[in-house]
Sequence to fold (385 residues):
Amino acid sequence: MIDTARSVWTAPRAPEPPEPSFQDGLLAGGVVLLAVLRIYAGEATEGRFAAVLFAAALALLVPCRRQYPLATVAMAFVAMSAASVGALATGALGAVAEGSPAVRLILTYALVRWGSGREASIGLALIVAAFPLITAHDPPPRPIGDVIRVAFWLLPAALGLALRYRADVRRERIAAARQRERERLARELHDTVAHHVSAIAIQAQAARALLPSRPEAAAGRLQTIEEAASRTLREMRTIVGALRGGEEAQVAPQQGLADIEQLAHEGQGGLRVEVAFSGTLGDLAPAVETGLYRLAQESIANVRRHARRAETVRVKVEGEGPCVRLRVIDDGTSASASGAGAADGFGLVGMEERARLLGGRLDAGPEPGGGWAVRAELPKTGHRA
Fold:
């Protein structure tokens, strides 16, 4: 219980709250309009103009609610409490005492949705403490009615908590998808390097065996190469072992451009895959070749999973200057990014992360004439210039 309370109290603010926008201005205007309608429809006739000004002042807090959730709640509820107590004491500000219920709901929601755990705790305590003051001018209290009203006041807090939890879960899943792609890329890079280092070690051993005169200097250098290569391989296996989860390293080269052509022969369910190459593609880094293969493979898999009535997928790889471009376009009717990729729905996120790690970019979207397109552009060297 203590640990739970401590974790709630120390929870950070929600990341990247939206800045005040034109829509916030419209929302504030709507709040004022609702307050005016409520004030002039109410029974209290004294101080209506002052009440409208008071509601407008409260509405000014709405655009700042995400950046300053606790401050806006404190100012609004203290002001409403003071107005209500003043109306009760003087009887001259009955309309002002109505306050602005819409502001209460909006600020309470923003407090929990965007504030830190400490801010939300203090703010909710302030809201509960302000309840008897703000409602002091109301008819004689009824316990059940007060409970219902308090619950209604706190309903936006529950909604804000639910949406914040949903956003946190989505953010964690996106981060996990990116991490999985980093691990996958690290494994492939390790396998490629392991292949080359193994070849170095074999060549060094052969050179030592075939040297006719076996000069000591040359043999010593070759032995050093062999030992360094073997040691590097062992060290890389140890370093990357944590990422592999105990999986054995592959010493064969990873898939490349030639393997993309094989995707055309792996058709399932009547889907036809057409592969075309153009431009200069002989100077691609191994990691880029593997990346192109993975992006094409994942895109085709997404078409099979999610595109309706797709018959053909066209894969085009084009080398131009320092970059290589990949396009995968299908002729289906509803391939969508929402379902792209793995079962968790974040395969497209992983594809974007792979392209980013290789120094490039990837975007996906519907084609004007129908179907879905995935476009990637990568530097041939596998890193930004």
In short: The radius of gyration is 32 Å. The CA atoms of residues 70 and 119 lie 6 Å apart. The longest strand covers residues 312-320. DSSP finds eleven helices and five strands in the chain.
